[in-house]
Amino acid sequence: KRKIRSQAESQLADALLRGDIRDGDKVVMTYDKSANAVLVQKQSPEAEAPNKSTKEPAHA
Question: How many domains does the chain have?
């Protein structure tokens, strides 16, 4: 758990410092098993708008 948290925090901090994401942006974090790495991507604006046919995630 600590390794995953450490990688996630590092990747998120790097993305913030590079300007890839800003305060208030929504991000998607994924784990790439082949690279053994956590990836951070800014969520697209289209994905942010709730779709009537999809349910909200149980976690925020």
Answer: 1
Asked if residue 54 is part of any domain, the answer here is: no
Quote the pTM value.
0.61
7: left (phi over 0), alpha (psi -120 to 50) or beta: alpha
The tens place of each residue's pLDDT in the chain, 60 residues long, gives 898 889 889 999 999 999 999 888 999 999 888 988 888 888 877 665 555 555 555 554
Say if 51 falls within a structural domain. Answer: no
Classify burial at 57, counting beta carbons within 10 Å of its beta carbon; exposed 0-12, middle 13-18, buried 19 or more: exposed
**Burial degree of 2 (CB within 10 A; 0-12, 13-18, 19+):** exposed
